[in-house]
Amino acid sequence: MIKLAVFDFDSTLMDGETIDFFAEALGIGEQVSAITERAMNGELDFFESLQQRVTLLKGLEFGLVEEICQNLPYMNGAVETIAALKERGIKVVCFSGGFRTATSYAKNILGYDADFSNVLHAKEGKLTGLVGGDMMFDFSKGDMLKRLQGLFGISEEETMVVGDGANDRSMFAHAGTRVAFCAKEILKKEANVIVDTKDLTQIITKVFPC
Question: Residue 10 catalytic?
């Protein structure tokens, strides 16, 4: 019986990468998305790639950051899937290597119970190119998952995780149900449930067939 479900945000609950939307606003979309792609494929250290990409965002108006985060395209079926899980009494949490300006805004829209992500540092209304937070490293999601399991007394077998990229591997290592959603090959190898269509409700169909 699943008691805890943890979802990645970018390219899982949201259809795209938040940082790529920021980069497009600065006219450096291709440069940043190339780094993002390599990081999600496991070709780059996540911490280093995050620092590199955020540095490129220096000078972006924080007001524009908030505007972008309030207009992100959520994944098909996100609201319905989270509602279905919560109806089953499952705690639903979002872990993101992205940013709190996006995950906290989406929380009340999508309906998850809590979000853990990173914070973009801003000064005088503009991004400084610095970042800090809960999800900075390759190991961060797995580390936070173990903490939540200990806090709530939930076992690995009672945990479901859903993600798409290399930095989701650490949480896959501590969950009985591991869903690779439209995922990179590096993550599919760690999964026991695979969904290749952009419809999160397929998770309910596959994990809770009855």
Answer: yes
CATH number at residue 177: 3.40.50.1000
Domain extent, residue 22, equals: 4-207
Partnered with residue 118 across adjacent β-strands are 99, 133
State the catalytic residue, choosing from 8, 138, 164, 168. 8
Residue 210 predicted with pLDDT over 80: no
**What is the total count of domains within the chain?**
1
Q: Work out the mean pLDDT of the chain and round it to a whole number.
A: 96
Would you place residue 170 in the very low, low, confident or very high pLDDT band (cuts 50, 70, 90)? very high
115 labelled catalytic: no
Q: What is the dihedral of CA 173, 178, 184, 185, to 10 degrees?
A: 80
Phi, psi angles (nearest 5°) of residue 15: -90, 80
Q: What strands lie across the sheet with 193-195, from one edge to the other?
A: 126-133, 114-123, 91-99, 4-8, 159-163, 177-181, 193-195
Q: What is the mean pLDDT of residues 18-29?
A: 95
